[in-house]
Amino acid sequence: MGPFSDAKIIDGIRKKRREVIHFMYRDYFPLILALIEKNSGTCQDAEDIFQDGLVALYLRCRDRELVLNCALRSYFYSICKNLWLQRLERKHRLVYYADLLVNDNEENYIGKEHLTREQKLARHRVFWRHFNELPDDCRKVLLMYIEKVPFREVAEKLGFTDENYAKVRKYLCKKLLRNRIKKDPEYPYCIDHE
Predict the structure, then answer these.
(1) pLDDT tens digits for 21-31?
(2) What whole-number distance in Å separates Cα of residue 173 and Cα of residue 181?
């Protein structure tokens, strides 16, 4: 089973503990990789689905008390399997998109909530990928900004000259992150085109 019980993993995910995430990658990823490769996917697909699954699991842990009727490993596997099936279904729909327009109304096949959920997962994945690639001081400034730490305190903790410089750093770091996200090839799939 490993060093973490299901309850400790859920608590660790809720608290964003690195050692829990590393444990999940080490212990759960091979299972997801086998699932994806067995169903016509690549290692990159498996990494994307695993990341989306982690985000979905985090959102469920954060928003409400997660009550499991099975092992967490089985629950996570089901999340990833459903995400992969949705992606395959979307890929299949895109191949036959022209046929749908000729033969049937698109709304019968594509539910708005389905696209919205997938867009949210894509946004999370793109955001965190680029956030983690930011310089260390930018990540710290933005995390403190998200946690509503006063700029005076940010300046003190990070050794900036004053709170005005902390505000400027926050602005520059946000701009850097925004520009990197907009250049990401996956970015167009993260936005609503209506």
Answers:
(1) 889 888 899 99
(2) 12
